[in-house]
Write a structure and sequence with these properties.
The protein has about 600 residues and is an all-alpha fold. Helix content is about 65%, strand content about 0%. The radius of gyration is 31 Å and the shape is elongated.
């Protein structure tokens, strides 16, 4: 009785701690995973997607992941699945020992699987498959106590085959663990359990030879649940190895339990759980630094919580991928230029990432689609959203929404309706999709809509000009020349000029647009750039909207710089307090050109010292 109470308390404690831990370290990962698939309530689609090899496990995975859209649900469901798996694994060892010392050890493979989930390319189905493995192992060991040897052998082989169809490669782990448990519990009969292993090996080989599976990784390894076009590291073997080793530790745990008093047994079990917990925290801190900040920001973008993004703790990193997201939030809040240099801008890439090696990365293309949409570059937004939907095997709800919006703006109503129909088959997006139907074939409603109408007015006569071949700045110029009310596009264009330190184009921009509907007044940051580029022609600056106050501040800045150089002072530290949020500070201290000069100066050899 004492043993049962202790086991119940340990299980409850594991559940609470795991849920709290997951919510703390993977909160935004759960939201992100929900965006990597679209679960459609359509019998024909379900049959097509989920009746193949490992389809049932994928079905259960997607059923669960769709609820990750809701706060806390991801951590709760994952915690429940993990602790239930650990409990079933522990219960499966009852023929050897039900020592509570084994319970904290049974959660260790789950900790490694949860660590694996930090990598978004490791599918959540890996955890679901492991849960199905523990369930089948529990059933197998329950039958082992009730069936004769021959019938038990047949049952184990059939269970292995059924699991292979339902969850794939984890069936080999099931067959191996059945053998290992038998080796410890009844060594004389254990040789019989080699048969289920052979059955799975032969079945897997046949599936590979007949091209039902791509290669042996998908038949026998945990890597089967990793992104197919990528190769997983050996780390993903660890949870399966730990699981197979656990039955070998059961006799030792049984011996220790028989020698310990109930109180000390509880203390030792709790100590083991604490050690596992410390390992989980340390491992999560190590793994969570890779993509997590970007994933966290992506959640705010998908939910259009721009203030939440600006309040997040990842806005001061200087990483240009994060700055793309930060500047998008500033633009939506109407603060792009006013607050531009409050953050560590690192050149034009801070505005928009256009690296070819990232052009097919869905974590990047989703954000690029939102950025292009905010720039009123609807064709590019549509392209990026389409690439993301096609690049993901099961689609992406936010990108499907983008395809609905962009096709409505273009007036491509049959295509918009196609994506609306898909979203209407989901649980959480069907109401939004149904609401979008009112725009179909309703030109007046679209043109009067504050979002769709404004975006449509930014479309040039020939939308094929939006090719991105000339660069984002050229596309922004095309937009603002087409629609003088496209203020977000105007601010992005100015941001490009500032970060590029492009004096000729800064002057050309001011010459063309100052005093027009697009720019009746010159924004403060552009004033700073104009006076810096034309300090010898202040009349030109005044004619382009530069205020006397800005000119006076620039003269004071120049004096400070001269004094700092004479006194061999740190210019950055001297200017930061008064000018830290200005274009001038970026120009003199933090721009890539200045950073490169500083780096080169550090590499220059020190002058030789003379003995005299």
């Amino acid at each position: 009785m004492m043993n049962k109470r202790l086991a119940f308390l340990l299980t409850a404690l594991m559940l609470v701690l795991l849920i709290v831990h997951l919510q703390h370290v993977q909160k935004y990962l759960f939201f992100f995973r929900e965006q990597l698939m679209v679960f459609l309530y359509d019998p024909s689609i379900i049959a097509d997607r989920y009746l193949g090899m490992a389809g049932p496990a994928q079905l259960l995975s997607h059923l669960l992941v769709q609820f990750f859209k809701l706060p806390y649900v991801g951590a709760i469901l994952t915690g429940l699945l993990g602790v239930l798996s650990a409990t079933l694994l522990w219960k499966s060892l009852r023929r050897i020992s039900l020592s509570v010392l084994l319970l904290p050890l049974a959660i260790l493979p789950i900790i490694f699987i949860c660590d694996g989930l930090f990598d978004v390319y490791y599918d959540y189905v890996g955890l679901v498959a492991y849960f199905l493995f523990t369930l089948f192992l529990f059933i197998d060991q329950w039958l082992a106590c009730r069936l004769a040897d021959l019938w038990r052998l047949i049952a184990t082989s059939l269970l292995a085959l059924l699991l292979f169809w339902m969850a794939g490669a984890v069936a080999l782990l099931f067959a191996v663990c059945s053998l290992v448990i038998e080796l410890v519990a009844a060594p004389r009969k254990s040789w019989l359990l080699v048969l289920p292993i052979l059955v799975i090996l032969i079945t897997g080989a046949i599936c590979v030879k007949t091209s039902l599976l791509a290669d042996y990784r998908y038949a026998f390894q945990n890597g089967a649940y990793y992104e197919p076009i990528l190769k997983p590291t050996n780390f993903y073997h660890t949870p399966w190895i730990l699981t197979a080793v656990l039955p070998l530790l059961a006799p030792l745990a049984h011996f220790a339990s028989s020698k310990l008093r109930p109180m000390w047994l509880g203390v030792c079990s709790l100590a083991l759980l604490i050690l596992v917990g410390l390992f989980a925290v340390r491992s999560a801190n190590r793994n969570g630094q890779k993509m997590y900040p970007m994933i966290a920001m992506d959640h705010f973008i998908v939910t259009h919580d721009w203030q939440g993004l600006l309040n997040s703790p990842y806005t001061k990193s200087g990483n240009f991928l994060l700055m793309n997201r930060l500047n998008l939030a500033l633009s939506h809040e109407g603060k792009l230029l006013d607050n531009f240099f409050d953050y560590p801008q690192v050149g034009p890439y801070s505005i928009l990432t256009e690296l070819k090696q990232l052009s097919l990365d869905v974590e990047i293309t989703t954000t690029l689609s939102e950025i292009f949409y905010q720039m009123d570059n609807i064709a590019s937004a549509m392209e990026k959203a389409f690439n993301t939907v096609e690049g993901l095997r099961y689609g992406s709800p936010s990108n499907l929404q983008m395809l609905v919006r962009t096709n409505i703006i273009f007036g491509a109503y049959p295509l918009a309706e196609k994506y609306i129909r898909l979203l209407e088959k989901t649980l959480f997006y069907k109401d939004w999709a149904t609401d979008q139907r009112r725009y179909l074939y309703n030109e007046e409603l679209i043109n009067n809509d504050p979002e769709y109408g404004a975006k449509r007015r930014s479309l040039p006569d020939n939308c094929e000009e939006f090719t991105q071949s000339r660069g984002a700045y050229a596309d922004l110029l095309l937009t603002i020349r087409t629609n003088p009310k496209a203020i977000a596009a105007r601010d992005y264009a100015i941001g490009y000029l500032l970060l590029a330190n492009d004096s000729p184009h800064i002057n050309a921009f001011a010459d063309e647009f100052y005093g027009t509907e697009l720019m009746p007044k010159t924004p403060q940051r552009l004033q700073e750039a104009i006076v810096a580029a034309n300090e010898k022609d202040l009349d030109y600056c005044r004619a382009r909207g530069v205020s006397e106050q800005t000119i006076e501040q620039y003269q004071q800045l120049k004096q400070l710089v001269v004094e700092a150089r004479r006194g061999n002072q740190d210019i950055g530290a001297l200017l930061h307090k008064q000018y830290g949020n200005t274009y001038w500070y970026y120009l003199l201290v933090t721009s890539p050109q200045i950073a490169k000069l500083i780096e080169q100066s550090k590499k220059q050899p020190e002058p030789a010292m003379s003995a005299h």
